[in-house]
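Whether sequence alone determines local backbone shape is best considered at the level of individual chains. Part of our work consisted of pairing the sequence of a single chain with a tokenised description of its backbone. This step matters because it turns folding into a mapping between discrete strings. For completeness, the protein is quoted in full, as a sequence line and a line of structure tokens:

_____
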Amino acid sequence: MEPNKNVYAFSKKIFAEGMRDGFPIALGYFAVAFSLGIAAKKAGFSPMEGFFAGLLNNASAGEYAAFTLIASGATYLEVAVITLIANARYLLMSCALAQRFAPGTPFWHRLLIGYDVTDELFGITIARPGYLNPFYTYGAIVLAAPAWATGTALGIMAGNALPIRAVSALSVALYGMFLAIIIPPAKKSRIVAALVAISFALSFACGYIPGIRNLSEGTRTILLTVLISGVAAVLFPVKENENDA
């Protein structure tokens, strides 16, 4: 039986909930993008160019890698490949979100949400129960994406005016915000809490293991995500009725 179209229809209430949850994410994005703007300035970007770079590539690791390569005079192909590798983990998040859409959801909804699948937006979206109403994610994106782009542009304008310690302090907000996303589900399930702890430990260890530590952060994240989620799916499968609920 096909779900009611109201599942993916516009809802002012759901859109407002997305804006509510996206507001702290937007603040964190602005702070992190501001520091990225300083890197963009070193690469020769103007504030307008930085704005569109941030708007079209809302990813800290991928954007920083691109700015660093551009500053070093890398080719277009090198920039494209490294950016793809750094952002590859978002492919896994997109696959997970694709399973949360109600059957019959128009393709353009999937396309628009795919534009801005980030760690934090994925976290708040996937945590919602039931089928995904895309307007929740739109509400979060409408604040988060402009904040990221504006932060990048203002970071370019500020240049090196701020001390390094001040810029580093601004970046801490994003990590605190991400913890706020993963802690609630971890408190509800001991299995999720254990998996989170294991992922932290393995992620730290991979930064020191010979061979693996030479991989990009994005590649390591993909490998760990597939490994941990695969083992968890085999050992602790989610029952069909729980998934439908």
Summary: The radius of gyration is 19 Å. The mean pLDDT is 82. The longest helix spans residues 12-42.
